Amino acid sequence: MIYISRRELEDICSDIFQRLGIPEDEARDSAEILVAADARGIQSHGVQRMKRYADGIKAGLIKGGVTPTVLRETPVSLVMDAEGAMGLSLSKRAMRRVIITAKEHGVGVCSIRNSNHFGVAGYYTEMAAREDMLGVALSNTAALGVPTFAKKAMFGTNPIAFSAPGHDGNLFSLDMATTVTTRGVIEMLEKEGKQVPPGLAVDADGKPAVDPTSLLDDMLYQRGGGLLPLGAERNIASGYKGYGLAVMVDILTALCSGGVFGEAVRDSAVTSARVCHFFMALRIDIFRNIEEFKNDMDKMLTALRETSPSEGANRVFYAGLKEQEALAASGKDGIPVPKSIWEDLQKMRINYA
Q1: What does the pLDDT look like over 295-349, one tens digit per residue?
Q2: Residue 195: is its pLDDT beyond 90?
Q3: Which of 49-58, 218-227, 282-291 has the highest mean predicted lDDT (pLDDT)?
Q4: pLDDT level of residue 187 (50, 70, 90 thresholds)
Q5: Would you say residue 155 lies in a domain?
Q6: For residue 324, is it within any domain?
Q7: Euclidean distance between CA atoms 231 and 239, whole angstroms
Q8: Among 78, 98, 236, 278, whose CB has the most other CB atoms within 10 angstroms?
Q9: What is the DSSP string of 147-191?
Q10: Helix, strand, coil percent content, the chain, rounded in steps of 5
Q11: 286: left (phi > 0), else alpha (psi -120 to 50), else beta?
């Protein structure tokens, strides 16, 4: 690993996006969201994805400077066709709009079709939490997840994120795939020359996947196999729960916006699929006094953090705590970036000059 300041890493990624023709404001927002993943210790959704974004832009599947089409609108809701816009910057604008709506009406929701990969879902929910709101963000993805009792991918990793605020920047911030892992993690295993650990995925024959390269290739071309749903295999560890959550995400993101869902969401060899999103913000004071709520959040998070760990464990975490600690550390020491990824970024700056 090498350690890079957050600002420098954002500037490099923004520069690459701009060299590829993305307007400066969208490039900077997109770079900020990508780097935010690495700053939180989520490398699978960080700058290691720059090559895939660049390929998508060059192929014309990811577009800058696009004005999404409004399909349906009410005082509290919005449905849009993204027209292939940058999923990162578009999602930031969409969440801002949802927050503005919630400030006026108590709730704001937005469902979007025909977008692109939007990075870490928790980035958007934390935008709402910092405005004293509850935030929700969902996205479907290319079909990578295998239903319970199946051996063929029929839904995406379909992430779910939810954030709620306490005082002094403390957050409960859940950001999870509905599969036991993500493709980004498998990509990192491939880069590091490691095998796929047991319980994460099955191959085209429905047997435990071992080789990350074969697994990634089979998922890309939908030959069979894929990632297991949250809860893992069959009903032994309640895999049907992750399966059900993944389908719920498809309903809220794709079916509500009229977008593509299930196995019809397909990546290409060079870029990720066009996907759908869902965003929601709820103003906390429509339920109760915000200070009373945040006081209770502080008590809850403190109680969870101070719970006695089990044998062999050092401490107990709650959703978002590790990421908040990684964020603080990266602000002090710089963001850790694998040397190979750093070299790829330098090559992209030269190649796209």
Answers
A1: 999 999 999 999 999 999 999 999 999 999 999 999 999 999 999 999 999 999 9
A2: yes
A3: 282-291
A4: confident
A5: yes
A6: no
A7: 4
A8: 98
A9: PTT-SB--B----EEEEEE-STT-EEEEEE-SBSS-HHHHHHHHH
A10: 45, 20, 35
A11: alpha
* pLDDT score for 233: 64
Query: Per the structure, how many domains does the chain have?
Result: 1
Q: Report d(CA 337, CA 111) in Å as an integer.
A: 33
Nearest alpha carbon to residue 157 among 145, 173, 174, 169: 145
Domain contains 109 = yes
What range defines the domain where residue 145 resides?
2-284
- What token pair was written down for 14? 């923004």
pLDDT, one tens digit per residue, over 98-135 is 999 999 999 999 999 999 999 999 999 999 999 999 99
Which residues lie below 8 Å from residue 236, measured CB to CB, with a gap of 6+?
none
* The Cα angle at residue 114 between residues 15 and 183, in degrees rounded to 5: 70
How many CB atoms sit inside 10 A of residue 297's CB?
19
CATH of the domain at 124: 3.30.1370.60
Measure the CA–CA gap between 87 and 76, rounded to whole angstroms: 22
CA distances from 41 to 126, 219, 319 (A): 16, 25, 13
Gap between the Cα atoms of 50 and 190, Å rounded: 17
Mean pLDDT on 263-273: 86
- Give whole-number Cα distances, 223 to 111, 137, 253, in Å: 30, 30, 25
- The string of pLDDT tens digits covering residues 47-64 is 999 999 999 999 999 999
pTM > 0.85: yes or no: yes
Res 139 pLDDT > 80: yes
What would you report as the CA-atom Rg of the chain, rounded to the nearest whole angstrom? Answer: 20
The Cα-based distances of 283 to 95, 129, 165 in angstroms read 13, 9, 11
Which 3 state secondary structure label does DSSP give 71?
strand
What is the per-residue pLDDT across 158-169, written as a single tens digit (0 to 9) for each?
Answer: 999 999 999 999
Mean pLDDT rounded to a whole number for the chain? 94
